[in-house]
Write a structure and sequence with these properties.
Layout: H1 7-17, H2 29-59, E1 69-71, E2 77-79, H3 80-85, H4 93-108, E3 114-119, E4 124-129, E5 136-137, E6 140-142, E7 145-147, E8 151-152, E9 155-157, H5 182-185, H6 193-204
Length: about 210
């Protein structure tokens, strides 16, 4: 931001040398933060998506590769090439897919008022669905950055598969992060919700 009047010419110069440059000049602070998030995600996400697209192309008949569509934060899908360029639009795309699935399933049964709950490894994502419409918002937070991304209006709680469960009298939340717990990982660590999901069907079959 301290470059002042040199900011625009420098961006133009770098754009010619670096085609993948994410330019954030002339933008509001909110859009600049969004560009920073995209710049951080794109090298990793883009490399993965382009590699995945190449593998999908090899798996199909020559010249007739199936399309590779990627879920976005707003609940829609785009081709992998576009998703690679706009990696920031994939934030919370997994939970967004859960909401889209809930709306589709509810529609089959004529249910238009829904609450979707999507448990992953790190969080339980909840969405209130009214009249069969996927609710969206145009601003959200990615870590400590407030960004301008249209996404499904999802609320996350720290109660995913990596959260420790407690017996009677247990209080508060205790999250293990990527360590899913004892039975899931084969380690005798405090039992998590992921362990419970593994153990309950086993106990039922005894």
């Amino acid at each position: 931001m301290a470059l002042g009047r040199w900011r625009e010419p420098l961006a133009a110069l770098l754009w010619g040398a670096l085609p993948a440059l994410i330019a954030a000049t002339g933008m509001s602070p909110l859009l600049q933060a969004t560009a920073v998030v995209n710049a951080g995600l794109r090298p990793v996400v883009g490399r993965y998506l382009l590699g995945l697209r190449a593998r999908v192309a090899q798996a199909g008949p020559a010249g007739d590769a199936p399309p590779l569509l990627i879920m976005q934060s707003n609940g829609g899908c785009v081709p992998a090439e576009r998703a690679e360029e706009q990696a920031h639009r994939l934030v919370l795309s997994g939970p967004a897919a859960g909401v889209a699935g809930a709306v589709a399933l509810g529609g089959q049964y004529g249910i238009r008022q829904l609450v979707s709950l999507d448990m992953g490894g790190t969080s339980l994502d909840v969405c209130l669905i009214r009249d069969g419409e996927i609710p969206t918002t145009t601003e959200s937070w990615v870590g400590e950055e407030r960004v301008a991304i249209k996404m499904v209006d999802i609320h996350s709680a720290g109660a995913g598969g990596g959260s420790n469960r407690h017996g009677r009298g247990g209080r508060g939340r205790d999250w293990r992060g990527g360590d899913r717990g004892g039975k899931v990982t084969g380690l005798f660590t405090p039992k998590t919700l992921g362990d419970s999901r593994w153990l309950l069907p086993a106990a039922h079959n005894m």
